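ESCALATION

Customer reports they have been waiting on this structure for their group meeting. Please prioritize. Original submission:
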Amino acid sequence: MPDKSSDVSTRVGIARVARSIVGCTGFLVRGRLHQPSRHVGGALWFADGTRARIFRETVVDRQRPRTPAVLVVEFRLRVARERTHRVVQRLSVLATPLFAGFPGFVSKLWLTDDKSRVYREIYEFDGAAQAESYAETLRWILRRVVVAGTFECHVVTGECWAGLVAQAECLAADAPPDMTAAWRPT
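Update from on-call: job pushed to the front of the queue and completed.
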């Protein structure tokens, strides 16, 4: 899904986000939303030769996805100063209700390339349609804060993010392997 103006209307975007907030609240109340630290501090290589550091992970306790789908998102925020990026990373946890209650949400890796200031997010959903719906909504949410032309997202069906990463052998690798799609973890 290349960068384009959001196809989500304000009314639809607000409704989707409101449902996510309600769902996330339910997960929090029942103790089903977690931020494990197992992958935090690790890094993933991408096919374009960049490396992104994992700074947060979010997981919902749920049954294993029946139809796993991975959503890989990439964007650059308009803020330019290093200190601002550190603040954004620390405060990004406040955005959790905007995605964790989305239908089919399973997990999210939060990544940043501190040199290029490119943020990447790798989500796992139960169902490609749910991943695509969330991607449309995320594009709508971020439309005013990302550099024009930098929002990209891709859905990979039939795979969980751990499988995609393991398949590419990219976690904490010292050198980037070769793959064709620049967004793809390698």
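Sent to customer with the following note: Strands lie at 33-34, 43-45, 51-60, 68-76, 105-113, 118-126, 152-157.
Escalation resolved.
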